[in-house]
Structures are given as C-alpha cells and as structure tokens.
C-alpha cells in the first residue's frame, strides 16, 4: 500500500497527542489541522479502509468514521436491492 501521501500531511510535524484526544469532544484542535490538510480525503479513506480504531484521521473521530462506514454499507445494500 502506497503511503507517500502521509508526507504531505499537515499533521506530519505535529505531536501525535493532538490526534489522539481523550474524548471526541477534545478533537477540535486536530480537526482544525485536518481542515487545512491537502491529503485530508486520502487520510480519511485510509482510516476507513484500515478500520483505524483510534485517533483523528481525515478530520473524523472513530465514531464519525464508523457512521460513514454504516452509511456506505446501507447505500450499497440499497443499490443491491435496486439492481436485483
């Protein structure tokens, strides 16, 4: 898997502590960094693919990533029903 996108991340030179907050409510600082990041979407897709269980990836908490995956599964399920 090509991870060269990580070299362009706005988080690259920052402390990882920012991206592993104690709670989702403390994720604001990390999300601000992600909002300005040129690889935010790639980072999020990586975290979704790898099922990252912790941290802020692509501007999303684990809870938010789980919701994205749930919506995608539901969408795929609906498409399959329409195609059947």
How big is the Rg? Answer: 15 Å
Shape: globular
Q: Give a short account of the largest sheet.
A: none
Average of per-residue pLDDT values: 96
Portion in helices: 40-55%
CA-to-CA gap between the ends?
34 Å
The tally of domains stands at 1
Count of runs of 4 or more consecutive helical residues: 3
pLDDT < 50 runs, ≥5 residues: none
Strand content: under 5%
**SSE order, one letter for each helix or strand:** HHH
Structural class call reads: mainly alpha
Number of strands: 0
Please give a structural write-up.
With 84 residues, the chain is an all-alpha fold. The chain has one domain (16-83). Helix content is 49%, strand content 0%. It has three helices and no strands. The protein has helices at residues 28-35, 40-50, 62-83. It is globular and about 50 Å long. The model has no long low-confidence stretch (mean pLDDT 96).
């Amino acid at each position: 898997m090509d991870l060269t996108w990580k070299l362009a991340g706005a988080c690259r030179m920052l402390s990882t502590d920012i991206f592993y907050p104690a709670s989702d409510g403390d994720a604001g600082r990390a999300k601000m960094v992600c909002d300005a990041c040129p690889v935010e979407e790639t980072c999020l897709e990586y975290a979704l693919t790898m099922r990252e269980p912790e941290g802020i990836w692509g501007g999303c908490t684990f809870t938010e990533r789980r919701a994205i995956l749930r919506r995608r599964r539901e969408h795929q399920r609906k498409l399959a029903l329409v195609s059947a």
